[in-house]
Design goal:
Aminopeptidase, 6-stranded mixed β-sheet
């Protein structure tokens, strides 16, 4: 969807549909056109009542330049990013249902215009997303263009450009995460990373991608990746994406994303119920692809490395077994107690590699790592474990601004003791069911050394589940959780906030 910024007053805007946003208990507060239309808009605003998700469409019947006016509620109180994204998403869906080719959306007054414009752009773009690649009957065509209406267009141009890039990165993450496992083996994940770099690198070559596989993984000692991928005929890959946004000016931030293209559990086979959802076990890696791609599109002045270890966990003849001892990248050994605790093995390899090769300023990993995190926090909050208070605080603050909530969990010596092994340095599960989300993070903690590091367990938030809060901008399937969050953190880091 093509997005433009326009300072034309809403009452004079010629457009097939004009979207207006009203808070709960408040009036519309817009001049929508002639007196009759303005009366109709006020009446619609009263019916909507500002309730979050409520929408009313009014045909102007040639009484105003806009063909129709869409009134959407933002809920009680000041319209934050999530509320305004939801309202913009509801309005954009109403426009799509009318079959209109374009529409305009007026940024509400009384708020930060740049933040409001960004929320409108992201809410509309993400709500209009549809994954219908494998359906013979497609969704209704989305509008091809949107005009963002703000009194001072110049003041919101940069925010709109950044929001558009963040939405694009989220959509890319959704597209790859939604792909079925027969169409998206590890080689395809790596190919998607390559394509993203090719699209975003430009003539300056500031975005590069290389892929390790087979003998290269073996010779460099990626024992965890090779062990988990050994049971599948679809061999593992490690995609390395590099965005040189700051040249040689500083140490990079390294992102690591778990990409298990399908997780049967391996020899420790999962139950059959909901196993189809294990195509989403690659969502962390997909988020990293989306983040690095969007950072390049934003021209974010930061050096950024994205590492995406991709495997398929299958119970084949070459599969690793409970009881095996695997040597991970860097020489640490791990006793395998359960082959369904595979994500931490491939993440540990990539984290150790990233720490050793790049000596980063910080590392962040994103992974659909544990069901225990879903039990603890539900389907709307991601778990966070970190060894650095400043990094953790920065990520939590970014999440509060993007509407992607994270909750920090503790990690202490007791948790580290729970993964000690009698036959190896560590074991890949903790002490029974106790602190499962934290002991998984403890396994990763041993791979990063002294590097500031944060782990985001997105098992509950990476795709829509039974307990997922309904948001218009999160259609069924992969959500792309983490893309906007990490991009906001990186932007704040660059700005020194």
């Amino acid at each position: 969807m093509k997005i433009a910024v326009d300072s034309t007053p809403p009452a004079r805007k010629r457009t097939p549909a004009l979207c207006l946003f009203v808070p709960e208990g408040g009036a519309a507060g817009y001049a929508a056109g002639g007196p009759k239309l303005e009366e109709a808009v006020e009446a619609a605003a009263e019916r909507v009542g500002g309730r979050a998700g409520a929408v009313r469409v009014i045909e102007s019947l040639d009484t105003a330049p806009a063909g129709a006016v869409v009134v959407a509620g933002t809920g009680a109180g000041p319209a934050g990013a999530d509320a305004l994204m939801s309202a913009a998403g509801s309005a954009a869906k109403a426009v799509r249902e009318m079959g209109l080719p374009r529409f305009a959306a007026a940024v509400p007054g009384g708020a930060d215009a740049a933040a409001g414009a960004a929320a409108v752009v992201q809410g509309a773009a993400l709500a209009l997303y549809a994954f219908d690649r494998f359906r013979s009957r497609k969704e209704k065509a989305a509008p091809a263009a949107m005009d963002v209406m703000a009194p001072r267009a110049a003041a919101v141009l940069d925010a709109v450009r950044i929001a558009e890039a963040a939405a694009g990165g989220t959509i890319l993450a959704r597209d790859v995460a939604n792909m079925p496992p027969n169409a998206c083996p590890p080689a395809e994940v790596a190919s998607q990373a390559r394509k993203a770099c090719a699209r975003g690198g430009g003539k300056a070559g500031k975005l590069r991608c290389s892929v390790l596989k087979g003998a290269e993984l073996e010779s460099r000692g990626f024992g965890g990746i090779l062990a988990v991928g050994g049971g599948s005929r679809n061999g593992p890959r490690l995609a390395v994406m590099e965005h040189s946004g700051a040249g040689r000016a500083g140490r990079p931030v390294v992102l690591v994303g778990k990409a298990v293209t399908f997780d049967t559990g391996g020899i420790s086979l999962k139950p059959g119920a909901r196993m189809d959802e294990m195509k989403f076990d690659k969502a962390g890696g997909c988020a990293v692809i989306g983040i690095v791609s969007a950072a390049a599109r934003m021209r974010l002045p930061v050096n950024l490395v994205g590492l995406v270890p991709s495997v398929e966990n299958m119970p084949g003849g070459g599969a690793y077994r409970p009881g095996d001892v695997v040597e991970l990248y860097g020489g640490r050994t791990a006793e395998i107690v359960n082959t369904d605790a595979e994500g931490r093995l491939i993440l540990a390899d990539a984290l150790a590699y990233g720490a050793a090769k790049y000596r980063p300023a910080a590392m962040i990993d994103l992974a659909t790592l544990t069901g225990a995190c879903v039990v603890a926090l539900g389907a709307n909050v991601a778990g966070m474990v970190s060894n650095d208070d400043s990094l953790a605080s920065g990520i939590a603050g970014a999440g509060s601004r993007t509407g992607e909530e994270v909750w920090r969990l503790p990690l202490n010596d007791d948790h580290m003791d729970m993964i000690k092994s009698d036959v190896a340095d560590v074991k890949n599960v903790g002490a029974g069911r106790a602190a499962g989300a934290i002991t998984a993070a403890a396994f990763l903690r041993g791979a990063v050394g002294d590097t500031p590091w944060a782990h985001l367990d997105i098992a509950g938030t990476a795709w829509t589940q039974e307990a997922t809060r309904k948001r218009p901008y999160n259609p069924k399937g992969a959500t792309g959780f983490g893309v906007r969050l990490v991009l906001e953190y990186l932007r704040s880091r660059v700005a020194g906030r």
